[in-house]
Amino acid sequence: MNEEVLRTLPSIVVDMGAIPHICNGADIMRPGIKEINGQFEKGAVLLVKDIRFGKPIGICVAEVSSESMRTTSKGKAARNVHYVGDRFWEIMKKSG
After folding, report:
1. CATH, domain 3-95, list 1.20.1090.10, 2.30.130.10, 3.40.640.10, 3.20.20.370
2. Structural domain spans, the chain
3. 54 — alpha (psi -120 to 50), left (phi > 0) or beta?
């Protein structure tokens, strides 16, 4: 992935337990989010990073604003759009 472009996106950091699910296309649930970086509104494109290495593992669309995400402890927080290993991710990796 083009690291320069990814750094411009607001991001969420997920715990290790969420990673296998996200990398299989699951949406991002609020309990798995450990950090919320930046301010954003519902519908914003977000970068998903793992908590251990801070590596990008997905791109998602926020289901709620950053403010709501910070004050909520359950429910779907973001819709998974692309994730490590999907066709788009592999194409971007080769072009980057």
Report:
1. 2.30.130.10
2. 3-95
3. left
The predicted-structure confidence for 5-62, as pLDDT tens digits, reads as follows 777 899 999 999 999 999 999 999 999 999 999 999 999 999 999 999 999 999 999 9
pTM of the entire predicted model? 0.90
